[in-house]
Amino acid sequence: MRALASATLALLLCACATPSRWTTGEPLNGVVARLGYPTYEFPGENGQRVLEYATGPFGKFTYQLRFAADERLLSAEQVLTEANFATIVAGMSTEDLRRRIGPPAKRFRVARPPQTVWAYRYDAPFCQWFMVGVGDDGRVMDTAYGPDPACEVNDGDLLSMGRRR
User: Fold this and answer.
1) Which residues, including other chains, have CB under 8 Å from residue 42's CB and lie 6 or more apart?
2) 20: which DSSP letter?
3) What is the pLDDT of residue 8?
4) In degrees rounded to 5, what are phi and psi of residue 18?
5) Which residues form the signal peptide (predicted)?
6) Are 122 and 141 in contact (CB under 8 A)?
7) Contact, 91 vs 97, CB < 8 A?
8) Does residue 9 surpass a pLDDT of 60?
9) Residue 163 pLDDT more than 80?
10) pTM for the full model?
11) What is the 3-state secondary structure (H, E, C) of 75-119?
């Protein structure tokens, strides 16, 4: 039941929370009344507030809405894009990473080099995700693209189809 509720929320956010549905100058309280509480909030430059609406571990969109000090909408951006991924560099802190592209869909540990991988699903023509290797010091070590395991096919079944019995 909990999974169904999460999936429904993600679909509603995707359906309702598109940048074309927001108007520059819209008040912050109006956005929150429509979308609910953000998944994350952090301060921006010059007294701005940034509200983040992430669509969850299987969602491919994370929206960040920037509000001026007077709590009027300045901009709305879908941040899970290859252009934003290209700005992630070695040495960046996890806080900067988090504020730049939001929460990862999944985190997992790898042994060589020892690091925690933050993996991000995003809207792409192929079933892939963006991965960021984070060292034990909390700094970005490297980045890469790879196949999203949610899309993997059991290759053994495909290979056995062509075999004679």
Assistant:
1) 49, 50, 52, 99
2) G
3) 41
4) -110, 150
5) 1-22
6) no
7) no
8) no
9) no
10) 0.79
11) EEEECCCHHHHCCCCCCCEHHHHHHHHCCCCEEEEECCCCEEEEE
60 and 17 both lie in a single domain: yes
List, for residues 106-129, the tens digit of each pLDDT value: 999 999 999 999 999 999 988 999
> In this structure, what CATH number is given to the domain that contains residue 35?
3.30.1450
What is the C-alpha to C-alpha distance for residues 150 and 128, in angstroms, rounded to an integer? 9
Distance of CA 137 to the CA centre of its chain: 22
Domain boundary among 78, 107, 129: 78
Sequence-separated (6 or more) residues with CB below 8 Å from residue 125: none
**C-alpha angle 107-95-144 in degrees, rounded to nearest 5:** 45
- 8 A C-beta contact, residue 39 and residue 54: yes
Residue 99 lies in a domain: yes
**Residue type at 107?**
R
The residue segments making up the domain with residue 59 are 2-78
Whole-angstrom CA distances from 77 to 3, 53, 106 are 27, 10, 22
> How many residues are present in the chain?
165
Does position 140 have pLDDT exceeding 70, yes or no? yes
